[in-house]
Amino acid sequence: MPTKVENWKDEVYGNEIRDRLMEFAEEGWDAIPEDEHDAWFERFKWWGLYHQRSGQESYFMMRIGTPNGVIEPGQLEVIAEVADKYARGPEENPEFGDAYCDWTTRQSIQLHWIKIEDVPEIFELLESVGLSTQQACGDSWRNIVGCPVAGKDKHEHIDAWPIAEDLHETFKGDDDYANLPRKWKVSVTGCDQGCGQGDINDLAYEPAEKDGELGFNVRVGGGLSRKEPRLARDIDVWVPPEKAADIGHGMSALFREYGDRDDRFNARIKFLMDEWGPEKMRSVLQEEFVDFELPRAGEDMRDQYTYNAGGNEHGDHVGVHEQPDGNYYVGLNVLVGRMGVDDVYELAEIAEEYGSGEVRLTQRQNVIVTDVDSDRLDAFLDEPLLDDYSPDPHPFMRGSIACTGTEFCSLSIVETKNRQVRYARWLKDNVSLPGGVEDFHIHLSGCTASCAQPQIADISLRGMKTRKDGEPVEAFDIGLGGGLGENPQFADWVEMRVAADEVPGYIENLLDAFEAEREGDETFREFVADRDEEALQSLADPEETSYDDPYLGNTKMTWYPYAEDSDMQSSPAPTDANDEPLPSDD
Amino acid sequence: MTTDVHQLDDGAWISVNDSREVNVSDLWLLAESEFCRCEPTDFLAEGFVDTGVDPPNIQARIAGRCIACGTEGVTDWLTVGRVIDPESGEFYGVVHDSVHIPEKRHRLADPEQ
Ligand code: HEM
Ligand code: SF4
Ligand SMILES: [Zn+2]
Predict the structure, then answer these.
(1) Residues above pLDDT 70, as percent of chain A
(2) Which of A469, A544, B100, B101 has the most Cβ atoms closer than 10 angstroms to its Cβ?
(3) Do B18 and A556 touch (CB under 8 A)?
(4) If you average pLDDT over residues A235-247, what whole number do you get?
(5) B69-83 pLDDT, tens per residue?
(6) Average pLDDT of A47-52?
C-alpha cells in the first residue's frame, strides 16, 4: 500500500504547490491548517523549503539549486541580499554570526531561519536573476552536480556544463518527472579527474570514448545514506552528448514506474539495483524507456581519476589554476562550507571586479572564482577576503567537510559545523601531518543520512552517543580510508562511539602511528587498505587533550544549541513574520 | 477523531495528529528487551521505522544502537506516549530515559498497513 507521503503527493504535488504556498505566505503561519501541517511540509520541500527541527517550528531551511554549482554573474549579490534580509536567525551562531550562506556538498546553497511570510519576496528576488528553489528538496530531480570547473578546465574532454544545464532545464518543472518515488540525484562529469563524484549518485554520466567519439558511460544506483552505501554500477551504456537527456528521461521514468512507493526506506534506485542488477536495469531501460538502440559502454577514463583519489595530488579545486583561455580560476577554501553574509557580498564584489562575476560551488563545500584576469591575478590574491578563505589552506582546513547537524536538522544526533571548525583549528595548531601528506580529508556527518559524505574521506565521523562518567555525551563512530578515484572505497568503521572531545586526540594518535609505521611515501589510503580491522583498531586510541568541546551535552534537547537560554521551553517558535512568538493554543 | 500517527523525514520524528512529538537522538532504557545482552539496554534512537496505535498507547519500532555493547538493530514495539482522550487528541510522551519494556506484538494493526 502506498505510504501517507504518497497519498499527499497524489493530492497535490509539484508545480501546483506554489499557489498554495503563496496563499499561506500571504496569510501567515497560522493559515496552514493544523491538521494538514505534515502534508504541507512534505510538499513544501519540492519548492526548496524544508522545515527546521523541533523547537524551531515555523522556520524553514531554504535550498537554492545551482546546477553544477554555477552561480552566474549577478546572482551572488542577490543571494547575499536574500541571506541578509531574510535568513537572519533570532539568535547568533558564535562562529558565523546571525546571517550566512551554506555551500553544500551537492553544489547548492542553503539558507536557514526562513519564514513563510517572506517567501514571495524571496522568490521574486531570486527569480529576477534566474535563480530558483524548485525541486531543491523533495521527490524529484535534484540539483545536478558535476565538475565545478566545467568549460574552464584543461583536464576536460567534454564540456559538461551545457549538458548539466540542458538536463537542469529539461527536468526542472517537467510534470512528468515531478513526482518520483524518492529523490533523484544526477551527476555529469566531463574531465579525466572524476570530480563529478558520479559514483555516489543515482544516475552518473562519466566521460568515455566510443569509436573515436566522446560521450558518456552511464552508471546507476549510487548513494550513501542509511548505512547502506552503494557505488553506482556500470549498466554498459554509452551515449553521445546529444542523447544524454534521453537517458535522463528513460532512467528517471524507469525509477518513476518501478521505484518502491510502499516503503520510503527502500525507495532509492540503489535498492532497485540491488534487486535487479545492472543487466536487468539495462534491458528494462532499453525495452520500455528509450526508443533507440543503446550503444554498449565506451572506453572510460577512470584510470586517470585524481579527484579525492587518495594520491599525493590535490584532489580538489582549491588554489590557482590556469584556464584554457589564459585566465585563471581560483578555488577558495570555505571551512565547513559556511560563509557570513558580509563575506558573501565581498566575494560577489571581487568576482565582479577581477573576473566575470561568475562564482562556482564545489562538492567539497568550497567556492571558485572563475575568469580571473591574468594581469590582475596577483592583486586578486592580495584581497583581504582571501586571508579567511585561502587558496592555499592548511590541509586540516582544506580537508574538512561538515553537514548541518543539530543546529537545524531533525535527523541529527550531534552538533556538526561549529565542532568541525574547532576540530580543524585544534588539529592545525597541534598536529603535524607526516611528510608529503598535503591532502587529508575529514568528513563529519551528524547522522547516518551522510550528507557530509563521510564514507569517502580519509577519516569519517558519524554522529553517535556514548556515556562519560555515566552522563550521555555526543560521540562519533570513526571510519578510515575512504575515497573516490578509479576504484572508490568506502571507509572501514574502526572506532565506535568515541566521545566528541576525544576525537582530536584519536586523530593525533592515529597520525603518529601512520608516520611511525608507514612504508616510504605510502599514502594514508594505501596504509589503511593494507591493514585488517584488528590492525586498524590497534593503531590508536581516543584521548582527551587540550581540545575543549562546548557541545558535549545533548545539543538536540535545546531549541538552539548556542542560545543563551537554550532550554526547549524558551524557544520563540512558532513565530509570526517578525519573529514574535505566536500565542499558543493551550 | 481517530489518532493519526506516522513517522516522517526518513524516520526523524513521530507525528501524532500533525504535531511533532517524538524525536530521534534520545537515549531510551530498555528492560527485558532481547535487543542485546545488556540489562537494561542503553538504546540510542536513530530512526523511527514503524508506528502504531494500541489505544491509548502510541507505539513505535525504533532503529538504533545499544551504546554499551554496540549491538545495532530495530527494537520491538515500544510505547512512546499516550493519547488518553481521542477527542482532544492530546499527546503525553513517556519519559524516554525511564525504563521501557518492548513488546513483541502490538494488538492493533499499524494504521499505515
Ligand atoms: C535540513 C538539512 C538536511 C536534511 C534534513 C537532510 C536529509 C537527508 C536525508 C534524510 C538523507 C538520506 C535520505 C536518502 O536519500 O536516502 C540525506 C542524504 C544526503 N543528503 Fe541531506 N539533508 C540535509 C542537508 C543536506 C545538505 C546541506 C546537503 C548538501 C547539498 C545534503 C546532501 C545529501 C547527501 C549528499 C546525502 C547522501 C548521499 C545520498 O544517499 O544521496 N543534505 N539527507
Ligand atoms: S547527515 Fe544527518 S545530521 Fe547531517 S544534515 Fe544530513 S540528515 Fe542532518
Ligand atoms: Zn547492549
Answers:
(1) 99
(2) B100
(3) no
(4) 97
(5) 999 999 999 999 999
(6) 97
pLDDT of residue A435: 87
Q: What is the dihedral of CA A133, A137, A139, A145, to 10 degrees?
A: 80
A4: nearest CB among B6, B26, B47? B6
Does A312 score more than 80 pLDDT? no
- Residue A155 has a pLDDT of 83
Note the helical H segments in A210-321.
Answer: 244-258, 269-284
A341-354 and A75-86 helices, crossing angle to 10° = 170
Q: Say which ligand is closest to the CA of A52.
A: 1
- Tens-digit pLDDT profile for residues A438-459: 899 999 999 999 999 999 999 9
Q: What is the pTM for the complete model shown?
A: 0.95
- A497 at interface of B, judged by CB pairs closer than 8 A: yes
Cβ-contact B61, B47 below 8 angstroms: no
DSSP letters, A66-135, are -GGGEE-TTHHHHHHHHHHHH---SS-BTTTBS-EEEEPTTSEEEEEEEEGGGHHHHHHHHHHTT---TT
Q: What is the ipTM of this complex?
A: 0.93
Decide if A150 contacts A161 (C-beta within 8 A). Answer: yes
Question: Which atom belonging to ligand 2 lies closest to the Cα atom of A405?
Answer: 3
Q: Rounded to whole angstroms, what are the CA distances from A254 to A188, A203, A221, A288?
A: 19, 12, 12, 8
Residues in chain B where the model's pLDDT stays below 70:
105-113
Chain A touched by B15 (CB under 8 Å)? yes
Residue B88 has a CB neighbour count (10 Å cut-off) of: 11
Q: How far is CA A93 from each of CA A115, A403, A444, A491, A569, rounded to the nearest angstrom?
A: 18, 15, 19, 31, 19
In terms of Cα–Cα distance, which of A496, A515, A510, A499 is closest to A538?
Answer: A510
pLDDT, tens digit (0-9, with 9 covering 90-100), for A125-181: 999 999 999 999 999 999 999 999 999 988 888 899 999 999 999 999 999 999 999
Alpha-carbon gap, residue A100 to A80, rounded angstroms: 8
Could you give all domains of chain A from N- to C-terminal order, each with its CATH number?
4-128 (3.90.480.20), 150-304 (3.30.413.10), 319-393 (3.30.70.3340), 398-553 (3.30.413.10)
Q: Is the dihedral of CA A272, A277, A280, A282 positive or negative?
A: positive
pLDDT in the model for residue A311: 81
CA distance B24 to chain A (A): 7
Strand segments, DSSP code E, in A415-569 are 442-445, 459-468, 471-480, 492-499
Within 10 angstroms of residue B110's Cβ, the number of other Cβ atoms is 16
pLDDT score of B107 = 52
Residue A535 amino acid letter: A
Pocket of ligand 2 contains residue A186 by CB under 6 Å: no
- Its sign, for the CA torsion A398, A337, A409, A266, is negative
Residues A398, A316: contact at Cβ < 8 Å?
Answer: yes
Give backbone dihedrals phi and psi of A270, rounded to 5 degrees, phi first.
Answer: -60, -30
Which residue in chain B has the smallest CA separation from A466?
B67
For residue B26, the surrounding DSSP H or E stretch is: none
